[in-house]
What we know:
This protein has helices spanning 4-39, 42-74, 85-112, 122-140, 172-181, 198-223, 235-257, 260-263, 268-279, 290-314, 320-337, and strands at residues 191-192, 195-196. By secondary structure, the protein is mainly α. The protein has two domains: 4-146 and 233-341, no CATH class; 185-230. The chain has a two-stranded antiparallel ribbon. Strand 1 and strand 2 form a beta hairpin. Helix 3 packs antiparallel against helix 9. Residues 151-164 and 184-221 have low confidence and may be disordered.
Amino acid sequence: MPSWKTVKLILYELLQFACLCIPVFVVMERFASVIRLVKSSDTAYWLVVAASVAYMASATLCVWVPLKYFILKTQRFSEVTNWRPATLAYVILSTLPCFAIIIANSKVQVDAGIKYDRFTELPVSLVLFSLICVDIVERIRPLRLTGQASGLELDFEMPGPVLTHLEQVTSVSAQLQANGRDDDTSPRSAVRNGSLSGRWRDADAYGPSRTSSTAYLYSSHSHSGPFRFVWIRDPRHDLFVATFMFWFDTVEMVRVAGTDPVYYSAWVFPIYILAYLSILRAVITPDSPLLASSSVLSQDLPFLVVRICLLGVFGYVTPVLYILKNILAVVSFVYFVCMTKLKLLNKRSMF
């Protein structure tokens, strides 16, 4: 009987393979329906469907399976820490052709003078959701799916107040008494005959116990009582939430491209191209220092320019909230990374 580790590996690989194939098949079938309407021929429909099957079979046998075998068996990429080859292969083999077919579908309908199918919600709900699933699998792969979070799973960043160190503060009388007992010890030295002086021995004796007890009280106060379940936090759940938050800006941009005035115009080309460039950020590991700069250069800055242009041409097809988000992301990155290095803003006495 296979171990749970093997079962988990098989489930992960099946889920990623399903996310690789299903978006391509669905998008190509919808495109084939448009081709059949435009050409008035069932032959064109089945040719497109057969092409999709042949493409996925070739991509799976020639790229996906060898890459997965190379990663899982030889561990050649175990030393790579800044990028994920499986995610790169998925973005190239699945997301790129899906976006290309969606753009081609718009071009075919505009040239034919018909408005038959604009793939409503398909790019967002299927293509990007499959990409998010692949991203989640890559992130959660090192973690256990059963039991409580411990060990490696606690290495996730957990924002909030953390009690790290407490130092005992002695009273003036205690210090005077300690100085009276240790007259032969220099006030500048805490060591006498190779050992700690009385004042430092007292701090060493009482400090750890008070520190541990205070830390215990701090922790027990936060996680005790009838409503202690509201304090529960699991990094595996945070991983799911953080992954979806990571993709929301790209999802909104692709959603704008699906609206009627935008989809049947030339603006669909730059929108999908920039959306795909922002998707390439998924190739970088989440803990890589390259992620922040790549997010600003490949997403926030280009999205800001395109959204302002869309707002001027089509009106409020995109929420102003995302424009403000892109502005704040770009301005904060430039300020904290570049401007704070200037002498004028590098003074500790300011703010």
